[in-house]
Amino acid sequence: MRHLLSTKTITRDEAIAxxxxxxxxxxxxxxxVKKLPTLRGKTVVNLFFEDSTRTRISFExxxxxxxxxxxxxxxxxxxxxxxxxxxxxAQTLSAMGADxxxxxxxxxxxxxxxxxxxxxxxxxxNAGDGTHEHPTxxxxxxxxxxxxxxxxxxxxxxxxxxxxxxxxxILHSRVARSNLWLLTTLGARVSFVAPPTLLPAxxxxxxxxxxxxxxxxxxxxxxxxxxxxxQAERMSASFFPSPREYARGWGLNDERFARLRADSxxxxxxxxxxxxxxxxxxxxxxxxxxxxxVANGVSVRMAALYLLLSGDREDS
Length: 316
Ligand code: CP
Prior knowledge:
single chain; 316 residues; alpha/beta; Rossmann fold; four-stranded parallel sheet; binds phosphoric acid mono(formamide)ester; aspartate carbamoyltransferase activity; Aspartate carbamoyltransferase; transferase; pyrimidine biosynthesis; Asp_carbamoyltransf_Asp/Orn-bd
């Protein structure tokens, strides 16, 4: 794998192979000595133009567990604030010998531009670009679902027939898009539930079903309910629904959580708005995978870095 930009182009076999490598990496994380020498001498740059807690830290932990050197770059406090372009930033990183660049950017398509530019000869990993994609989040979500369903017998398995209901701000969500492509490739059936104002105008090419009523979706008894963060920073003050209307109509509150099928799992990519899209009772319950998702993120990102940086990089 030369770059990891999108889940749309990942095949079922490629996805399963990456998840299986992540299982091996999770075994390493459970050991007393967590480090592997695999990427010794390689340099991974975390290039973050948007804020992040989980993704940036877990890429750093993943690279260090594989013995790579890590450079953390945040646009805040860098020469980007003086007007430096993506090209000049990339060429500066190239001059410093970056082997992989993990990029989060507010512009959809920025990782693809970097991968195709020729400004830098490095593997590019999309760590979230605008409203477009967040592929490693979807991979860690698939890994988490597979582990909850199959436990230690997960290797080699897909998600055939698993029902996943994704709820919330689909319009702005790169997590929703990456999960749609990956989960359906793995055989899951995806449905989206959202207020009409938080669904994209044209979803005709999306292999999913759509609804506006969360209560109906909960009573259908999905295997997985994935709550998304309301991206209030992308909405105006007069937006419908208001936070109060949203919580009442589309929040996973205590009453809805109590009605969920007893063995359904509750997911959230984080960061969470507790009391808005998810109650604390749901987020902190034994059925919640929120912290498992974070822990699994390190293993999945180790697998992605391993595939990008060990051996020959193939175009894909
Ligand atoms: N899920 C996720 O991308 O979280 P961060 O924004 O904290 O990286």
